[in-house]
């Protein structure tokens, strides 16, 4: 008996998976060991001003979110997104050095 093209005993196929632009599913920015465990009362190894450290951590989180937005929004390739974030990072470093 020939097999008809309308076979109904095949398992159902899953719909195509799309990348979500949900930051809850993305990993947190990476940090060096001990960065999160350090308290304000402990001396900091780099000797940087605590205000500078706070601004740099804020920039780290912002740039990480920006990178994910560019990648997960299918707006840029990973290399294009890295270049865009690197330009913003260069601006941040320049502002910190001239302030």
Q: Return Rg in Å.
A: 23 Å
Dominant shape? elongated
How far apart are the termini?
A: 83 Å
The residue fraction in helices comes out at 40-55%
DSSP summary: helix tally:
2
User: What's the mean pLDDT score?
Assistant: 75
Description:
With 99 residues, the protein is mainly alpha-helical. It has helices at 50-72, 78-98. It has a domain at 49-99. The radius of gyration is 23 Å and the shape is elongated.
SSE arrangement:
Elements: H1 50-72, H2 78-98
Helix pairs in contact: 1-2
Task: Produce a short descriptive summary.
The protein is an all-alpha fold. It contains 2 helices and no strands.
Keywords:
mainly alpha, 0% strand, 99 residues, 44% helix
